[in-house]
Amino acid sequence: xxxxxxxxxxxxxxxxxxxxxxxxxxxxxxxxxxxxxxxxxxxxxxxxxxxxxxxxxxxxxxxxxxxxxxxxxxxxxxxxxxxxxxxxxxxxxxxxxxxxxxxxxxxxxxxxxxxxxxxxxxxxxxxxxxxxxxxxxxxxxxxxxxxxxxxxxxxxxxxxxxxxxxxxxxxxxxxxxxxxxxxxxxxxxxxxxxxxxxxxxxxxxxxxxxxxxxxxxxxxxxxxxxxxxxxxxxxxxxxxx
Length: 241
Description:
By secondary structure, the protein is an alpha+beta fold. Helices cover 27% and strands 33% of the residues.
């Protein structure tokens, strides 16, 4: 079947090249695009990435979504088993720490094998897999961590969700609650950045300049903690040692 679509694509190109290439350029591009799409639709079910286990959603009745950013599939890319795939639609389940893709061939969703997934992105968010071992501090767990900034230091966020029951036990309602934990990788060592003070302590070698930058730019950690941290590490990376 693969060879049939390649022949079809080449045939379309030859025929269109022989016919009014300038006047019919829009038609040409569209025809080639259609042929390529037909080929992709035929073979995508056989791609290596579509060999994961079926995803079964849990937490039915829990309000909200277990997924990152939205309940719907979002555009993204993955580096899976050494191969890069783009233009995929993904879920990132923050409860199970799994990445899910749509299996078009069987009309279901698949869980990618975490150990084979080195990197993935959703929208403009980039996630890398860190494997915990004895060389890393105990607060670094195996799983996916969002890389928020990479410069003189690297700022990571570990994102999780969990179902939380209502305070009123009679309601018997549960809602997904998001939790974010922040870490800094500085000089090949991980440090926790639980709050403003612990975060700024890591930048103490530029304390005066950092404090002035925060004041001049009215950066408010209480209202926009993550955005503030990113701005500060970007500025810190611009400063000379």
